[in-house]
Each structure stands twice: as C-alpha cells, then as structure tokens.
Amino acid sequence: MKRWINQIIKKRFNQKRIIKMRKGVMRPGHIQIRVLDMDVALSHYCDLLGLIEVDRDEEGRVYLKCWTEVDKFSVVLRETDEAGMDFTGYKVIDESTLEALENELNQKGYPTTEIPVGELNGCGRRVRFKAPTGHSFELFATKEQPGKWGISPRNPEAWPRGLKGMRPTRFDHCLLYGDDLEGNLSLFIDILGFDLAEQVVDPEGNKAAIFLTCSSKAHDVAFIKHDEKDKFHHASFWLENWQDVLRAADLISMTDTPIDIGPTRHGLTHGQTIYFFDPSGNRNEVFCGGDYHYPDHPTVTWDADELGKAIFYHDRELNERFLTVLT
Predict the structure, then answer these.
(1) Cβ atoms of 286 and 237 closer than 8 Å
(2) d(CA 175, CA 232)
(3) What pLDDT does 269 receive?
(4) Bond before 263 cis per omega within 30 degrees
(5) Is 60 exceeded by the pLDDT of residue 10?
(6) Sign (positive/negative) of CA torsion 287, 323, 200, 27?
(7) Is residue 150 part of a domain?
(8) For residue range 46-68, what is the model confidence (pLDDT) as tens digits?
(9) CA–CA separation, 72 vs 148, rounded Å?
C-alpha cells in the first residue's frame, strides 16, 4: 500500500512539474504568406476560403481574419515573386512574458530581432528568431482586439450574416518541413514550453514528424523531416463540423480549385480534413474534429511504416503531392 501511495504522489509531482513547463505562449497569432498575384489571392482567401479583409498597409500587404477571432488579424498576404511562408507568430500572455522569453532565447543561442510596434498594423512589438529548421518565428503580446467579426460581445448572436465561402472560425496551425527536428523539439519544449502531443518515429527511434501544442489542441505547429530547410507545407483553418468539410469540398469543385486530397480523416490527431492549393501553389487545409491534449497526457507515437495510415487514415497510403509539393 505504501509503495502504491508513493507511486501516486510521484506521478502527481511529475504532472505538476510538466504543467509548470508552460512558459506563457497561448496560441498561434498570425502567419504571413507570400502570394504571386494579390487580386487573385484575395479571391481565393476571401471568396472561397472565407477569410475577412480587415486592413492594408503601405507595403501593399493585406490583413485577414476568421470571424470568431478577437484579434485584429491572423493572416497577412504579401505579394512577391516566390510563394511560401515568411513567418508565423505566437501570442504570449503579456509583455513581461515576452521579455522573459526574449532573454531566454538569446541566452540559449537563438539570436532575436526586435520588430517595432506597428510594423504590422495594430500589432505591438514582436520578437523574431530562426528555428533550427530555418523557419522564422516570432512572439508578441499585444494586438488590437476589435472582437469577433459581425458579433457583439454583449448578448451575441450565434453567427454573423454575410459570411462567405468555407466560413472558417480560426487560423489553427501550420505544418512545416525541415531538417533538424531534434533541434526544433528542444527549442519548442525547453524554451517555449510546448508539449509533444504526437510523433512519428523510424525503426531506429529517430523522429520523422513531431506535433507540438501550447494549448489543449492536438497541435499548434507541426514539423516533418525533410532535407531542405525552411519549407512550407500548409496553413490550416478550423471548421465547425464534418458537414462543413464536405461543403468545402463542394466549393473546391465548383471553383475548379486544385485539390490535394480529401475529404478524409487523419490517423494523427484524428481530424477530418481536406487539402487544396491557393493560386500561388501554397497548400491550405480546412478541418474539424480531432484529439485534445493536456500537459499530463503521454505522447502518442506512430511507427514510420504506418505513416500512410497516420496521415490518411482511410486510404492508408500517401500521395506523391502531399510529400513533395512545398513552397
């Protein structure tokens, strides 16, 4: 009996220790995506996907949001001659947390660049750094909060009229490809306080994919092993239910939008999903459902020889586009 009680106490202590690892990073805050033609891109992201344009700046960037998001924007489009992702940012609890994480990043070998207040319209100062996979990330604590689009914060209706396209409720996560997954794992867990919710491992125990969360979601960012650094696989947006995913598939077909795969289910995270491409070749995902994760949950592990089922649960095999089309 005493041994059993000691095991329970030790387990609870370890759970408390894990919970304390959270460093104050709350959620994905925004992503800046490079597009080749802004007008064509806006037709895709606003009319088809259903994001809402909220602002433009002197550099020609366009700011978008999903209707339930309280912050001013979550997606920034920048017109250029090469598609891909410039950076993605995470919101932290407050400015003191931002300062503490900035100091820790610098102390542990991740030099930071301070982006001044207002460089993105309505956003406070940002701290930018590079991950071992070459991707640019940033942290921020302050952004204007006009609230949910078309919904009053007092006695709110269920949803606003006038929504377009797939009607996503939030920018959920991005999936990125790069070479140094162990380095990214150390950065995101040890410094930023994320948890490893799921992983794919090869027969030697090396990580082929990692799914990291700073919340109770299945993942807030994910990485897949790839020889090249700084590759963008997709930006993902949350829908409310499976019927919305099927409706998104109908809209993709109605507009002759290039599709990657779906509708289907993931084995990893168990989300129900469809993938398609914007006119610049950047991949988008809309999905619903999926698992949840708390800091005391163990990491879910998939073997690499089950990767087909892990990614596409119904087909149980990967298509070539999903593995090779990156921006």
Answers:
(1) yes
(2) 7
(3) 81
(4) yes
(5) no
(6) negative
(7) no
(8) 999 999 999 999 999 999 999 99
(9) 9
pTM of the predicted model, to two decimals? 0.90
The verdict on residue 30 lying in a domain is yes
Helix (H, G, I), strand (E, B) or coil at 306: helix
Mean pLDDT throughout 263-271? 80
Q: Which of 69, 90, 275, 293 is labelled catalytic?
A: 275
Q: Is residue 4's pLDDT more than 90?
A: no
Please give the residue range of the domain that contains residue 246: 25-145+167-324
Catalytic status, residue 266:
yes
> Can you tell me the mean pLDDT for 230-258?
95
> Residue 177 catalytic?
no
Total domains present in the chain: 1
Set 135, 219, 226, 293: catalytic member: 219
- Does a structural domain hold residue 288? yes
Alpha-carbon torsion 213, 285, 64, 138, what sign?
positive
Catalytic residue (choose from 173, 226, 233, 293): 173
Strand partners, 19: none
- Of the listed 135, 233, 266, 293, which one is catalytic? 266
Query: Backbone phi, then psi, for 103, in 5-degree steps?
Result: -65, -45
Per DSSP bridges, beta strands 113-115 and 84-92 are: unpaired
| Domain containing residue 66: CATH number | 3.10.180.10
Active-site pick, 44, 102, 285, 293:
285
Is residue 30 part of the annotated active site? The answer reads: no
Output the average pLDDT for the chain: 89
Residue 4 lies in a domain: no
* pLDDT tens-digit series, residues 113-143: 999 999 999 999 999 999 999 999 999 999 9
